[in-house]
Amino acid sequence: MCGQVSYEISGELGEIVHCHCVTCRKAHGAAFSSVAAVQDADFRLNGESALSCFESSKGKHRYFCSGCGTQIYAKRENTKHIILRLGSLDSNTVTQERSHIWVSEKADWYSIHNELPEYPEAE
Predict the structure, then answer these.
(1) 26 half-sphere exposure, CB direction, 13 A CA radius
(2) Domains delineated in the chain
(3) I need a surface site. Which of 51, 63, 77, 78 has the fewest CB within 10 A?
(4) Residue 46 exposure: Cα atoms within 13 Å on the Cβ side
């Protein structure tokens, strides 16, 4: 949002997943977080010195801009991909929505209004 951090993606985005877990809801101040996987080799970050991170669960770090607070991505230990926060994109995507996950922790004030598969936890 402030421009201190930017990134480029040279490969494809994975399918979109809407995560309703408590940590995503709290980190984003929203009913859920929309994310897609991007292979590490396809993700180039600019302005890394402006990034801050928080280990929200064991082995999972959430990276955000220290200037404006925009959530950029998350990374789990021992994986070859990042979890891109789609709200940080500046361009349109060509990927499809796949599912809602962690609906067992969904905000009680939000109702899902589509026919995507719903999973009580991660798929």
Answers:
(1) 8
(2) 6-105 (3.90.1590.10)
(3) 78
(4) 6
